[in-house]
Amino acid sequence: MKIGFIGLGNMGAPMAANLVAAGHEVTGFDVAGVTVEGVEQASDAAQAAAGRDAVITMLPNGDILRDVYSEIVPAGQEGAVFIDCSTVDVDSARAAASLAEDAGLLPVDAPVSGGIGGASAGTLTFMAGGSDAAFAKAAPLFEIMGQKAVHCGAPGNGQAAKICNNMILGVTMVATCEAFALADKLGLDRQAMFDVVSTSSGYSWSMNAYCPAPGIGPQSPADNDYVPGFAADLMLKDLRLSQQAADSADAATPMGTRATAYYEAFVSDGGTGKDFSAVLPRLVAKHRDDAD
Ligand code: NAD
């Protein structure tokens, strides 16, 4: 396939490199002038999109996505699949998709989980929203860049699935850290607490696979001084997107709202650049009347 790739940052660059390694002809563009070995450089986003069978975007946010789509949609070749892998708000994803659909293109919003490691290894999970025809055309590319793609329904539903998942993750991580901090103060050994909870009804990915307590459970960022992993700043971005979506859809998300406020306080008070599980040492240092 001839593929255009726009946004060659931490995630986009290795994803584009995997498409090149699989034998595709990739033309790329990034405002920062980033180059990737084997990717031909275009002079702007429209040139990267023109005449391609597939155009992939991996951008920071919904406003930038809307700007880039206003440039690349008019340049798109009829029937081309336009895959947006950025994490953005549901409304921007749906606006970009309808612009593309009106122009005879096949849009798919396909945010990812798996992070920079997954992007490099080609083991990302894609959560995709779009028509059956658009998903079918994107699927072989998902297979190269990832290990799993779930078709979640209409445009925007990939973003909806991503923020619902990450809202659960933010809430369960804070809850897991709270439980460790309480256990400490009750004199309950962390290993004993892990052994019980990880095999009882309190288990979760945060506890079992990504335990926030150093030296407990499988290797996790807690064992590496909370170097991310998944940065608290990115968790805050996703929690804010969940709250924007909840406002827009008039959905009650009391715990999501609390987790968002908690990560806002954490990030603005020394947590920036740390893994999102580093709320554990913060909670341990706090008192009941000084919870945030
Ligand atoms: P990044 O900031 O490293 O990359 C974004 C790139 O987009 C940058 O290189 C930037 O120069 C480029 N860009 C910005 N505006 C542009 C424009 N108008 N035209 C062309 N290029 C433009 O970010 P990243 O870590 O690669 O993340 C990309 C997206 O993936 C984000 O939406 C992020 O939330 C999501 N995501 C990131 C991770 C992660 O672990 N880094 C995990 C899952 C999802």
Question: What tags apply to this protein structure?
Answer:
3-hydroxyisobutyrate dehydrogenase activity, HIBADH, alpha/beta, 292 residues, N-(1-d-carboxylethyl)-l-norvaline Dehydrogenase, domain 2, binds nicotinamide-adenine-dinucleotide, elongated, Rossmann fold, NADP binding, 2 domains
Structure commentary:
The radius of gyration is 20 Å and the shape is elongated. The protein is built from twelve helices and nine strands. It folds into two domains: 153 residues, NAD(P)-binding Rossmann-like Domain (Rossmann fold); 126 residues, N-(1-d-carboxylethyl)-l-norvaline Dehydrogenase, domain 2 (Orthogonal Bundle). It is α/β, with parallel strands linked by helices. Bound molecules: nicotinamide-adenine-dinucleotide. Nicotinamide-adenine-dinucleotide binds next to helix 3, helix 5 and helix 10.
Briefly characterize the structure.
The protein is α/β, with parallel strands linked by helices and 292 residues long.
Secondary-structure element sequence? EHEEHEHEHEEHEHEHHHHHH
What binds here, in terms of ligands, is: nicotinamide-adenine-dinucleotide
Q: Class of the largest domain, according to the CATH hierarchy?
A: Alpha Beta
How many domains?
Answer: 2
The oligomeric status of these chains comes to single chain
* Averaged pLDDT: 97
Instruction: Using the coordinates shown, work out and report the CATH topology of the largest domain.
Output: Rossmann fold
Gyration radius (Cα, Å) is 20 Å
